[in-house]
Amino acid sequence: MRLSVMLTQLTYGMVTSVEIFLLTLIFSLPLGLLVAFGRMSKNKVLSGIVKIYIAVMRGTPLMLQLIVVYFAPFYIFGMNLSGFRFPAIIIAFSVNYAAYFAEIYRGGIEAIDKGQYEAAKVLGYSKAGTFFRIILPQVLRIIMPSVTNETITLVKDTSLAFVLAQAEMFTIAKQIAAKEASVGPLMVAGLFYFVFNFIVAFVMDRVEKKLDYWT
Fold it and tell me: What pTM, to 2 d.p., does this model score?
């Protein structure tokens, strides 16, 4: 196989991996915050349901969750799965990572001194204003190292999309390596993940320093 053809195929896989990564973050970060609120709710029913959700997401393999999300609509509703592969991947990744982010958010929120809520109330802040203007910036600063670790893990987890036959970076690299009987494509894939993680770590470090400055 010509080098240009191989690189073109690998680039296609890289784009897919990046799409999975970005879309997962876009959906899982805000969803994780909502889940964290449910986890800390004084409503025992809601809190209990969220606890079970988090336990299931964290206690079962992401690979299994991908399979369940993809095939459940067919077995439950008889839906046609044509065109559902990529959406299923994003849904499974998002609900999985939202559970992890929820626990990270919860740890950060609970680390804030309760006196700050009381002080904000005295100053006339609403509950929403207190959280988004005073509490959340501090929470973000506290949780950034943990969020960075999960984000780096997500980069590598994008390779699990192969379970649903999605042609992401690692899947294409394996296919080319098998066809050409060469480890070259796998080395390129490894370099891609390393560079991608380096960029993610750099960006997250810059964000963390910005948050230190703001707070």
Answer: 0.86
What separation, in Å, do the N-terminal and C-terminal C-alpha atoms of the chain show?
54
In this structure, the chain runs to a length of 215
51 and 124 Cβ atoms separated by less than 8 Å: no
Burial 6-29 (b: 16+ CB within 10 A, else e): beebbeebbebbbebbebbbebbb
**CA 173 – CA 1 distance, rounded (Å):** 13
SS3 185: helix
Residue 164 region by backbone torsions, left for phi larger than 0, else alpha for psi between -120 and 50, else beta? alpha
Distances (CA, A) of 21 to 26, 37, 59, 152: 9, 24, 22, 10
Walk me through the domains of the chain, giving residue ranges and CATH numbers. Answer: 3-109+143-214 (1.10.3720.10)
Per-residue pLDDT reduced to its tens digit, 46-57: 999 999 999 999
pLDDT tens-place string over residues 22-48: 999 999 999 999 999 999 999 999 999
